[in-house]
């Protein structure tokens, strides 16, 4: 398929996700608790897209490779070593704004 | 646009109905955000029946990787639209997270503040994608916002006037 409104169905039934480094794709997979391998395309990449992928890798949440090392990564991967990705906390933001406006 | 819309709607999830009515401003070329917004607001109306929102569009101020000089021109053109819109809505709070569209809106509010027409609090939340560097909108609005929120500690170190609350989306 080319474009679907949502990949939620596919994600739910997946055991492993292999994705480009777009933040939306990475976060969606991680939030569903799916092991994720991020593939960087050096030629297409916008430097800033790499920032999140690198950070997630540093945090041990994703595996990381480029197109040429993908096969090798798949062969040697240890998915159990991946750490869970804690969810963001929008309640902290709400709390902050409430303080700003004296609503607390 | 896309990712920005998803992030900003997440930021809104825990806000009380004090933050109402909500006025959404989109780029004219944005095809996907409207549906996401309507879906969010529809769900919200299930909990808060008096919930209100509006949706306006302004010309897109900058394409990805557009040159600096032409960006200034297209942003000025967007301001021609955002200024009357901001004047009409007179928001108490502007919340934005980085698409080019937010720059003309914030600058309009800033201008209306200077002219003593309306004092708007501008809160900018840099995208979660930004771990080490700020977006162009971020670099500009760091100086014009009242509160500049970053989601990773490296950015807090580089931009000391920013607020770090951890990951909020």
Give a quick summary of the entry.
Chain A is α/β, with parallel strands linked by helices.
What attributes characterize this protein structure?
heterodimer, A: 104 residues, alpha/beta, Rossmann fold, three-stranded parallel beta sheet, 5 helices, B: 169 residues, four-stranded parallel beta sheet
Report on this structure:
The complex is a heterodimer of chains A (104) and B (169). By secondary structure, chain A is an alpha/beta fold. Helices cover 43% and strands 12% of the residues of chain A. In chain A, strands 1-2-3 form a three-stranded parallel beta sheet, with helices on one face. The radius of gyration of chain A is 16 Å and the shape is elongated. Chain B has 169 residues and is α/β, with parallel strands linked by helices. Chain B has one domain: 3-Layer(aba) Sandwich (Rossmann fold). Helix content of chain B is 43%, strand content 16%. Chain B contains six helices and six strands. Chain B has a four-stranded parallel beta sheet with strand order 3-4-5-6. A two-stranded parallel ribbon of chain B has the order 1-2. In chain B, helix 1 runs parallel beside helix 2 and helix 3 crosses helix 4. The mean pLDDT of chain B is 94. Classes of the chains: A alpha/beta (104), B alpha/beta (169).
Q: What does the secondary structure layout of this molecule look like, with pairings?
A:
The complex is a heterodimer of chains A (104) and B (169).
Chain A: H1 8-13, E1 17-19, H2 23-31, E2 36-40, H3 47-58, E3 63-66, H4 70-76, H5 90-100
Parallel strand pairs in A: 1-2, 2-3
Chain B: H1 2-12, E1 22-27, H2 33-47, E2 53-58, H3 68-89, E3 93-96, H4 102-114, E4 121-125, H5 136-141, E5 147-150, H6 153-158, E6 163-164
Parallel strand pairs in B: 1-2, 3-4, 4-5, 5-6
Keywords (chain A): Endoplasmic reticulum, Glycosyltransferase, Transferase
GO molecular function (chain A): N-acetylglucosaminyldiphosphodolichol N-acetylglucosaminyltransferase activity
Family (chain A): Belongs to the glycosyltransferase 28 family.
